[in-house]
Amino acid sequence: MSLTKPSDYLIREAAVNPTRSFLVQAPAGSGKTELLTDRILALLALVQKPEEIVAITFTRAAAAEMHARVIEKLQAAQQPEPEEAYKKQSWHLARAALAHDTQQGWNLLEHPARLSIRTIDSLCAHLVRAMPVLSGLGGVPEVSDQADALYLQAARHTIARADQEPDVAQVIKHLGVNLVDVEALLVNMLAIRDQWLPTLSRAGSIEQLQTYLEDLVVEQLERLEDALPLGWQDELRDCAVYAHHNLLAEGKKGYPALADWTAADPLLPIPEHVTRWQGLIDFLLTSTPPRVPRKPRGISKTCGFPAGGNANLNQRMKDWAATYDDTAPWLEPLLAIQHLQADYSTAQTQLLEQLTRTLLLAVAELRLAFIESGQVDFIEIAQRALDALGYEQQPSELLLRLDRSISHLLVDEFQDTSLNQIRLLERLTSGWTAEDGRTVFLVGDPMQSIYRFRKAEVGLFLQVQREQRLGDVELRAVALTNNFRSAANLVHWVNELGAHLFPLQPDSELGAVTYNPSEAFHEEKEQSIVQVHPFIYQRHQEGVMNAEQAREAAQQRVITLCQAALAQFKDSAKPVAVLVRARTHLGPLIQALQQAGIPTKAVDIDSLHSRPVVQDIVQLVRALKHPGDRLAWLSLLRAPLCGLRLTSLHRLCGHHRTATIPHLIEEADPQQWEADEWERLQHVANVLLDRSQQSGALPFAACVEHCWLRLGGEQIYGSPNEKADAENVFRLLEQLAPYGDLDLDVFEEKIQRLFAVAQNATQAVEVMTIHKSKGLEFESVILYDLNRDAARDKEPLLGIEQSHGRLYVGMVKASDAPQRDPLSLFIADREKKRAEFEMQRLLYVAVTRARHQLHLVGVVEQNVVKEELVVRSRSLLHLLWPQVEAAFNAATPEIAPVAAHRCGTAPHHQLVRVQQLTELPYVRPRHVPSGSNHWQWNEEPFKEAAIGTVAHAWLERIGREGRAAWGSDRIEASTGVMRRQLLRAGFALNEVDEAVAVIRDTLLRTLSSTKGQWLLDVAKAYREWTLLDAEGRVSIIDLAISQEDQWLIVDFKTGQPHPGQSDADFLTVMKERYAAQLRRYCDQVTAFDGRQAQAALYFPRADLWCEI
Fold first, then answer.
1. Confidence (pLDDT) at 926
2. Is pLDDT of 945 > 60?
3. Longest CA span, the chain
């Protein structure tokens, strides 16, 4: 245990001063969450109400962790002062907060929900909900994180209006009437409309774009001029004109852009001179890529300096060439202007106007799609939240109300903010001053900004840091330096890497971040190492490993390292992780780990779509949906559920090309079949051809699940992971098609996005992408497949860039154009630079996850002809190369393993199938009653779930406002609102009145019931309480009652026994169905503060109570 203070403790003490605003740069392992929670504790000792403090982060998991940390510190403050010096500050701050809590009567430990710690998305939704009219949404519709289908619908509706809208027709014509490209263009632009809509929706938008372009040209030329040495024009001017005339005399092109360069007419940083500046590229640089400064021996006749020419100018140019190489400070700024253009041409302006009107039409169609579907995307919620706040000059009632209620704003992961989010924060804090006691506290690390694909703009952090201001609020920018995570030798190694990895100068436009070195808080330990594991192979060399063998050897090394880490760190909850850049890099490794018997948690890596159990369920769904889907039926008959041999499949349908498989099964002759094969066929026929399954009385999802059980799916795929995977698919079916109207395309698209459930082992190897690992730490980290190239981004149809509030738009590439326009190429070059800078930051995140051990595993080809190692330029290994080059160069190509003897034929794969059908337990066909459908309780189908959600919201409101304020008249008066809520949730007009009646009945019976009255009146209760568990699963608890020594969890249900069903039978079914869910709720609440929890179901319509 360390009793010393961190070396940056003065900065940490200053940063918790609740009277000042700060921007804190907190590198990896520096205790960012610790500082944030200390700041919250300091503020709790100052404010009149805890709600005056609003903390914002970007994920639910981070918000839950921050909330839990604050509560833990408050609880720890009830204990004696800790011995560790670095814990004392938190303890004293928590003691002061508890004293103020007692004085104010908050009882935070009993009412922790009063701490306002939320995600940025939930804040936006809260603002929209608070001012539904001003936001323009009339409430909060469902927020979809997969809005592509709505974008596509809007794009197609826009294209369909080409006959009435000439602008749309012209855009389609420009793209060669390629509707696929037009669709893609509109979909992509709708997905980033927050970047261009504020500019293009204003009057005079084209003129504004022209102004932005001119400002950009001037800035780029001034940057180049500043990078060139003093007197450079005098040095080069005569040389350039001389070389130009020499080349013209040789019949060559020369340097026409520099032909008129004189002392009286110098190159100026103005748009009109941009082509002259671009002439310097051909004059100063080599003609072939990579374009670098000419060397002295390159100053020759070929570039305009013949040996017998002007000796003075020849020597002057050679002296210039001898001074500069590929590290010249002016090289990058010079190459950056290569594709700049001074202005938009007349034709380009006309196309921009047509494109702008087409895009605005697409936005209008998208908003219609939002209304029809009752869904919106995150962009719409964020924009409407801004609308709800109004403006500083014209603040809305909501902004004025928030201005009175919020005194302190804290933002975590500030490096991941987008421009719209910055605008939201600026609007929330408009008018704040240091004198009024209100503060802003921003924490983040630009070196860990890796979410550019989510529109995070690290340049915004750099800009606020440079200006030390967020809107109206002045900030003090500070940086933490201590690393509490990693051992000293790891910290030193990362510092060495960072010194050459990161650029020397920041660039807020391109996202260039300089390195901020760390100091190790922990001493170097014996088991702490950084180790390089090179695997070298050669192509087509006898006795030396090839690429496939080298990858297999690397996998075996990873397995050995994982086994060692599990043994060495057996008491750690996070012993070892394998990190890669992309999911596609991990498939074979996961299989190898599992085959070696190593417990493995693959976090969002292992696609469910590739699992045999899921493939079989998908084919079952397809078969039940359509008897003519031959591929699905044949797949089922071949699958382990049945396992027919190929000869049997041919016997069944080989001579019948058009008949459906169900028909052929019914017509099959048992005399022509082997007994075992016939039995297998009849096993499937008895299930899938059962007429009761096709009556429609059972919900479709229930029918699929029941057929799966009768076929023996649960026995054939009996492992816990396989059962969990199957359950995921059935749950998805329930969401998409509770009553059978399943769109197979949507179903299979959703299946592609499902990932296998991670193994629930106490100690396991965690396998994940580097992005997923951010914020985590492990005893040992293995960076795998380091020499894998990054996937190339698809070239966009339209070059567009938003930077610091300015918009740059290139041209849509015409179908017959040989290449993209210059401005689009300029934007593409800048995007490439941004991607390169982000890859540097991604590597930094990867190497800073380790506490004790960092292993770097790379497979590299040795080029026999050139006698050099082939390091791919777009790989993480390329960035690591200065640190690991010696280790790789010292390695020798691996000797190939002796291959096992192989026959000339391909290996024979055994048919996988259940051995004996008698091994499968009998599953009774489910009775389907005639008449009305009483199937109500299969995982709460859509209608029941929607009714329950609306009813819960009203019960929560009644409990919050008090039962006395809600009589039957007020409930009756609220039915119109309930009706609108249900319609927005997707109910048809002919169904909504019945659903409203269910909700009204639920509320009235709760109010009239003794048990219901007690539940509504209880004081120490959390209603609609959102909690996360360690796996990141979200639970929304209807009612959690804090009792003396335990919690009581109550889940409200709107159901009731159907006619003829006894109360006891009904409760038995309900208890079985919801027990697992309520046990999870209890575990989460117990983890919250350590008290045990009991759970109960309450059915107000039947006045039934069921304890679990």
1. 45
2. yes
3. 111
